[in-house]
Amino acid sequence: MPKKINFQGKSLVSITDLSKLDIIQVLKIADELKKEPQPHLLDGYVMGSCFFEPSTRTRLSFETAMQRLGGRVIGFAEAGTTSGKKGETLYDTIKMVSGYTDVVVMRHPLEGAARRATEASDKPILNGGDGANQHPTQTLLDLFTIKECQKKLQGITVAMVGDLKYGRTVHSLAEALRHFGARLYFVAPESLQMPNSICEELKTQGIKFSLHENIDSIINKVDILYMTRIQAERFPDKMEYEKVKNIYVLTPRMLDKAKPNMRVMHPLPRVNEIETGVDNTPHAYYFEQAKNGLYVRQALLGLVLGKL
Amino acid sequence: MDKTLLVSAIKKGTVIDHIVKGQAIKIIKLLNLASHDKRVTLGLNLPSKTQHHKDLIKVEGRELTPAEANSVAILTPQATINIIDDYRVVKKFTCKLPEKIKHIIVCPNPQCITNHEEMDTNFQVNQEKKQVKLQCHYCEKKFNQDEITSYNT
Ligand SMILES: [Zn+2]
Question: Yes or no: is domain A136-290 CATH 3.40.50.1370?
Answer without folding.
Answer: yes
